[in-house]
Amino acid sequence: MASTSPSPICPDARVVSIDLGDRSYDILIGKGLMRADSFAGLPRSSQALIVTNTTVGPLYTARLREAIAPLHKQVLDVELPDGEQFKDWPALNQVFTRLLEEAADRKTVLYALGGGVVGDMTGFAAACYMRGVPFVQVPTTLLAQVDSSVGGKTAINHPAGKNMIGAFYQPLRVVCDLDTLSTLPQRELLAGIAEVIKYGPIADAEFLSWLEVNLDKLLARDHAALMHAIQRSCEIKAWVVGQDEKESGLRAILNYGHTFGHAIEAGLGYGAWLHGEAVGCGMVMAADLSARLGLIDEATSLRIRSLIERAGLPVKGPNLGAERYLELMQVDKKAEGGEIRFVVIGPLGSAGMRGAPEGVVRDVIAAHTA
Question: Is 262 noted as a catalytic residue in this protein?
Answer without folding.
Answer: yes
